[in-house]
Records
---
Amino acid sequence: MHAPSGHSGSRSTAPGAVSRAARLVRLLEEAELPGAEGDFPLPPKLTVTFCHGGQGFSVVPDLCEMGVDIRTTPHFDAHAAERLVREAVGELDSRVPAPRPTVITPVASWPPYRLAEEEQPAAALLDAAAREGLSVRAKTAGPSNIGNLLAGEGIPATAGFGVRYAGLHGVDERACLEDLPAVHAAYRHAVLGLLGPS
């Protein structure tokens, strides 16, 4: 996002690029997304993942960059996601004009996917977990993971499971290390089962 640069002590009241970014965040987070659909259990999800702009305490920034991650679904695909972002940006540029229009750069698009419980490698992993006495249930993960990328190449994949945890991906993330032996054994059984008899 662009804006006129300046100094915070100026008489000008034009919003800086960071202020424009804040308005865009609000527009994106208030955008209506469809609900869950059919046998795909999760609805689309929009997450603002970063916002970088500004320098110094008295400089009005002329540029701010923002990242957005959107979970797509079978009925809300990459085109619908991009259209939603473009509409929000169009509204921002109309309401709060700037010297240059906001630039949108799509980075990557992975298709939504869901494995059935009987598909491999998920079935082998669920079976091995049960044999180790672990209570594991299948669920759809997201908004995105490496499985989405592999699914786009026709490769079934699963995000798997791990030890008990809290604060996932947060600054206070922590894991229960006493679970490691059972989780390791389950993965070992699953891999050996998938490889077949030697």
---
Amino acid sequence: MTESVLAGCVPWDHFGITCVRGPSLDEVLSRLGVADQAPYPLCTPEEALQCFGWDEQTPAVRVCRSGDWIFLLDVDAHGRLLQPSVLSGLSMGTEAVSVWYQMAGTTRIVHARDGEIMADFDAWAVHMTTGADTSRIRSALADVGFFPEDEDDFDDDWSPSAMALLALERAFGLTLSPGVAKGALPTVSLQHLRG
């Protein structure tokens, strides 16, 4: 399996990445309802965990731009940005995609375009993918071998989270340097978003 560059940007055992195409950083933060938190503290992943906490009750994200995309990196994998109302709001006039993984949980991908949920994919319930048009996500996952035909087709290094990241990189042109992702980035609390 080809290695995902995004996999080098997040912890291997739990993560959340949400990407919004096009708007400015300020616009995305405004849509999230966190503009009043400025000036935003600059935190590395470790500093953000110390400042904002380790549990789902204190959700926060570190934010940066790479190419056409604004990246929102969960401080601790909380999954709050997967909520349809949140992702729909982020996607108004553009598109947004979010991937979430917890080692003891599952891998989920949600894609929204212009306020509408296009696909909501859960690796635990592949047959229950929902949304207005799931073809882009399903095709991207199929292209990286996410859906082996039988048990023998699974590589030893097959990982639903790594394959999901690789699929999104290819389908949406997502690129983020691990050096940038591990550096000090503006960090905001999402405490106001109910889980």
---
Amino acid sequence: MRNLFDPSALGWPQLQDSLHVYVLPGPEFADVVQPAVDVIAQFDFCVPVAPQWMHATVTRIPWWRTEVDDRALREFGRALDAMTIERTAFTIKMLGPTPHETSVGMEARSNTPWKRLLDDTRDAAVQIFGTGRVLPTPPTRPHVSLGYCVADADSQQLESALQPVDISIELAIDEVCFVAVHQDPSAGTFTWDLISSHRLPAEI
């Protein structure tokens, strides 16, 4: 595996206050994936993600909170409100754990509601924050990371230890959160401050 926090991997010019839109799993999700997290914790080159910091990235916005004014943050929040109120909550089935080059996580196939959520969120970001910077490529599929690689290492033993762990769980997409994300390479963590949250109405 490769160190995710190597500057060449993420390429964030600042470690604090990166603007993102996340979906946050509930406590049940963290409980179900705990067996995989326990395995990850046995390997010192991979840092397990604490339940409160688990997330599915909808999009990263190529601006930092310190670069934009509060008016733009509020306008984007209103755009997310207008977007989410027009749709209903949904779920996606996540399977795993799956090792990747820099992390281990649960992942799902993109479905139509997820693709609409992603596209509309990114469109709103361009509308509010402008086209001066190109939006980063979105995740190839919905995923929730359970561990981040913090050193280049042979991951064969980790992958073998994860093979008996077979998890399937529905991730509820009933709220999106606009957050300012902080990267800590020494700790191997991503944490955040909540800027605003936006509920999707329940299906009637």
---
Amino acid sequence: MKRRSTTPWKKSRTYGDIHGGRTRRRFTDNIVARAHSLQRPAPGQALPMLLQDNPSREFFFPVSVEECAAALHALPAGHGDGITHIWLRRRPERMTGLNASLAEFIYGSGVRVVVLYPWRVDGRLYVGRKKPKPQHVAPYVRFGASIVNEHGRWYAAFSAAGLKRFYIEHLFCHEVGHHVDRYSRRHRQAEEFADQYAVQWGPLTTTIMTVPYSGGSLLAASGDSADPGSAASPAST
């Protein structure tokens, strides 16, 4: 039991209460509400709903949310049925580490959401301090990325057109593959299915990528910066 001397005293407060007289602590950032911000679409609402955040000065989106919607319609009939949202989402502060995902598929509570995260404005993806194995960088090389070394760090460097294709054909279609694969599988089996889905059906979306590139610069950053660049798995569930 606390001694009275350890609790600051105010006449308006009962001894032992939380500061301010509340019986429950206040969530200063309203975290509970934010965790469930995507609402189930209303009956008859046009789907998918398109959401695009401001990515911040350090990041940009190589594709637009409209291009993603067009890619979804370019896939075989029925593959996009049930997807409620396409979200180009600002990267949360907790997702700046070396294993941060570039894409996610979220489902539950009446929503099925394809999420794409932005790319760093330096245009490169950090892949480690050791030369990566070919199988680890195959998803990048398939879209024309060069694997380069600068100051002991390895990067995947894309052209503007290659990066747009990587986002649509690989990242976006990979997550649609998770939507199509509605059966329960072990994690590795689910990832293999989504990868194969993107390889098989991703080329169908190439025809929609006619919008000129806009956004951050794709010039490689020079110098041995303390920030190694955006580092992430090719895709994540």
